[in-house]
Design goal:
The complex is a heterodimer of chains A (173) and B (582).
Chain A: H1 2-13, H2 18-33, H3 39-50, H4 55-84, H5 90-97, H6 100-105, H7 110-147, H8 149-156, H9 158-169
Helix pairs in contact in A: 1-9, 2-3, 2-4, 2-7, 4-7
Chain B: H1 6-43, E1 47-55, E2 60-70, E3 73-88, H2 90-94, E4 98-113, H3 133-136, H4 149-155, H5 159-184, H6 188-205, H7 208-269, H8 279-306, E5 340-351, E6 354-363, H9 367-370, E7 374-383, E8 386-396, E9 404-423, E10 428-445, E11 449-462, H10 471-480, E12 486-495, E13 498-505, H11 506-575
Parallel strand pairs in B: 4-5
Antiparallel strand pairs in B: 1-2, 2-3, 3-4, 5-6, 6-7, 7-8, 8-9, 9-10, 10-11, 11-12, 12-13
Helix pairs in contact in B: 5-7, 5-11, 6-7, 6-11, 7-11, 10-11
Classes of the chains: A mainly alpha (173), B alpha+beta (582).
Chain lengths: 173, 582
């Protein structure tokens, strides 16, 4: 846990562009909320590797959002059922159901559909919010944090030693 | 900034390749666990697999040593297969449809011994039938042994003895009555008095005219008294004679009463032949009932392979799916295909007699989608102890709610060895040896069951008479010893939960005759014994009664004596030395 927080702080405090971090968080939202071994996550993984996206943020985000997904599974199930049983969409779903690729994707599973719907809808807002938050953190919050007694105490603490040793191992200052 | 990280693509491909490699390494084990887990859940008992081997090109699966535990006997396998090999439709598999075009099953065996128990704690798909005791239980043979005549007499009241007791009481009562009466009827004192008066009158008549005149009144009075007494004694004697006569008649009745007793007891203790009317059902019925129950039980277990349990309108509640699994919503398929289908399975079955080969087609719980029933056909020839066997039929569940399953089994030249037909203590019977040909046709509907079994047994030998005790058993088996061939027909009809077995056989004729003969012999012996014993008892009673009656006869002699005395006295008055002038 400590290492994860240290990692997060490193990311936030690094020179990585906020957009790369926020995109990573966005994609981790999809990979974390939906069942991990779904076909669409292969695409997500491909995009994460080939696009300029911060991998550490992505993997941290997957872990975080997987935990959130466990809590929200009943909601995803209900939402997925509503979407899949919507009469206006029946013909559309029927076409997909008769396609091998979409059957492989298991779109007709209520949790897959519910979680994918939520993650796709949330992708852009999460991306934008995260980017804005990272910028804000770097501009104002970081300096303030450094000056607080808490930060000073932290710096003197074991946590800070782990953080700095981790930072050095990774080739930081 | 570079928009595309080509190194990242390489990393991605490496990861995918690594994942694929791990998948390839583990997939056999994953498939093995999946089959064991799903099979255990469906059967309700442990399903084990030694190994699974998945091949990708072409897509196929082979399983080594599949064991399916018998839920009723966890230390035995219901079915064990040495090897199963199948080819799968890859395209359909991607659409979550398991379509097996061809499957070969080698070394299929039934009822094999397990090394460890295959019981599991929960059996959610248990479709067990309670064993029907009314058909499968041992049918009790009615007892063919009559009770001993002595035993019967100890238990039963005899009319003979009742009559004798009543008569004895009456005779004794009469004895007392007449003894009391004799005390007042012309007793010795009275007779002496009469004699004295006669002498006085005679003496007075000798003393001149005065004496004669005086004696006449006295003589008349004495004569009247004696006459009166005489009449009384005569009537008493007549009454006594009537009593004696009636007692003699009743003694005669006692001596003839045994006939009635014998008749009544024979009627009560005669053996009815009702229980013996269909003895072959009694002998073969339980076994047929057991086989029927076992077949229906296994049919129930295999039912999930023939049709899905469907939720009707509000009949079955769809359970909430486990957390994280969700529910798969189904849509119309443009080209419907069952979710699971084995188009053709070639099976080789190892039985103790040898190997039987066959094929099964269209194994699927979605027959209504496939549009074709399950068909099976097995045959074997020149087997050990069996000339030929054929089993074929179809399980038609194409129309839900109107399923009809048909099967025909033909066996020829089956060497029957020590087939126990009855282990009843009264009548243990086993068919020691025979060669049987049999044909069974069965049809099982949603709510109907019909079956017909025809069989011929040749070269039959039954349990030897010397090996049993019991008169009837020996007699019956002696007759069966002459039976070399017999036929048997069984008809099963009703519903799976309530059916009846009607059985007829040539043996019924033999058994009926044997029973009738044995019953007749036993009855004759019993009648003879009863006659002798009851007659002896009657004789004793009659002798005792005659003795009592003779006592009464003695009283009659006394009365006769008094009668004669009075008669003589009366004559003396008329004749004895004096004569009345009128």
């Amino acid at each position: 846990m400590l290492q994860a927080v240290a990692k997060l702080l490193k990311i936030l405090n690094s020179e990585t562009e906020p957009g790369q971090i926020s995109l990573a968080v966005g994609f981790s939202l999809i990979a974390g909320l939906t069942p991990l071994f779904s076909l669409h996550n292969l695409l997500v993984l491909l995009l994460v590797f080939i696009l300029p996206i911060n991998l550490s943020s992505f993997f941290l985000g997957v872990v975080f959002f997987s935990g959130i997904a466990y809590l929200l599974d009943p909601l995803f199930h209900q939402l997925g059922r509503v979407i899949l049983t919507e009469p206006a969409l029946e013909l559309f779903w029927t076409d997909l159901y008769n396609s091998t690729l979409w059957r492989l994707e298991r779109f007709n599973n209520t949790i897959v559909m519910g979680s994918l719907a939520v993650s796709l809808v949330s992708f852009i807002p999460v991306h934008l919010l995260t980017r804005s938050a990272v910028r804000r953190y770097r501009q104002s919050f970081l300096e303030w944090v450094r000056k607080t007694r808490l930060m000073q105490a932290l710096q003197a603490s074991r946590f800070y030693r782990i953080y700095t040793s981790y930072h050095r191992l990774r080739g930081g200052e | 900034m570079n928009r595309i990280r080509w190194k990242g693509l390489l990393s991605f491909l490496l990861i995918v390749a690594l994942a694929a490699g791990i998948w390839l390494l583990l997939i056999d084990r994953i498939v093995e666990r999946m089959i064991e887990k799903t099979g255990t859940r469906l059967v309700g008992a442990s399903v084990e697999l030694d190994a699974a081997d998945l091949t990708l090109i072409p897509l196929g699966l082979s399983l080594t040593r599949l064991q399916v535990t018998d839920p009723d006997r966890p230390m035995r396998n219901a079915v064990e297969a040495a090897r199963l090999a199948m080819s799968l439709d890859a395209g359909r598999l991607l659409m979550h449809k398991v379509i097996i075009e061809e499957m070969a099953v080698d070394g299929l065996r039934f009822n094999t011994v397990r090394e460890r128990s295959g019981a599991v704690s929960a059996a959610p798909y248990s479709l067990e039938r309670a064993v029907r005791e009314t058909v499968a239980e041992k049918l009790k043979l009615p007892s063919m042994e009559l009770p001993d005549a002595q035993e019967i007499l100890e238990k039963e009241d005899l009319l003979t003895l009742k009559l004798a007791d009543t008569l004895r009481r009456d005779i004794r009562g009469a004895q007392e009555k007449w003894e009391a009466r004799l005390k007042v009827l012309a007793d010795r004192e009275k007779l002496k008095d009469y004699e004295r008066r006669v002498k006085e009158v005679r003496d007075r008549m000798k003393g001149g005219l005065g004496g004669i005149l005086g004696g006449v009144d006295e003589a008349v009075s004495l004569r009247n008294d004696i006459k009166q007494e005489l009449d009384l004694v005569r009537s008493s004697r007549s009454e006594l004679k009537d009593d004696l006569e009636s007692f003699r008649v009743r003694i005669q009745q006692v001596s003839t009463a045994p006939r009635e007793d014998v008749r009544r007891l024979m009627e009560k203790y005669s053996l009815t032949q009702q229980g013996m009317a269909n003895l072959s059902r009694t002998l073969f019925g339980p076994r047929i009932g057991q086989w029927t129950e076992a077949t229906l039980r296994w049919h129930g277990r295999l039912r999930p392979l023939l049709e899905r349990v469907k939720a009707g309108s509000g009949e079955v509640e769809t359970p909430q799916p486990p957390r994280g699994e969700g529910e798969d919503v189904r849509f119309v398929e443009y080209r419907p295909v069952p979710d699971f289908l084995i188009r053709n399975a070639r099976v080789s079955v190892d039985v103790p007699a040898g190997e039987i080969a066959g094929e099964v087609r269209n194994i699927t719980p979605d027959q209504e989608i496939l549009g074709a029933p399950l068909i099976f056909r097995f045959s074997g020839e020149r087997l050990q102890g069996l000339q030929a066997v054929k089993l074929f039929g179809e399980l038609d569940h194409v129309r839900p709610g109107r399923a009809t399953d048909r099967a025909t089994l033909q066996i020829s030249g089956y060497q029957v060895k020590k087939l126990v037909l009855s282990d009843s203590e009264d009548l243990p019977i086993a068919l020691e040896n025979a060669v049987a040909d049999l044909e069974l046709r069965a049809v099982l509907g949603e709510n109907s069951l019909e079956g017909n079994l025809s069989s011929d047994f040749k070269g039959a030998t039954f349990t030897r008479a010397q090996e049993v005790s019991g008169r009837f058993a020996k007699a019956l088996l002696s007759l069966l010893a002459d039976v070399r061939a017999f036929a048997m027909e069984a008809e099963i009809s009703g519903t799976p939960d309530d059916y009846s077995v009607r059985l007829t056989s040539d043996l019924d004729r033999v058994l009926k005759y044997a029973v009738a003969k044995q019953v007749k012999e036993q009855m004759v012996l019993l009648e003879q014994d009863l006659k002798v014993l009851i007659h002896e008892k009657a004789q004793e009673q009659v002798e005792a009664l005659n003795k009592e009656v003779r006592g009464l006869g003695g009283l009659d002699a006394q009365i006769a004596e008094r009668l004669n005395f009075l008669d003589d006295l009366l004559k003396e008055i008329k004749v004895g030395g004096f004569k009345l002038p009128f």
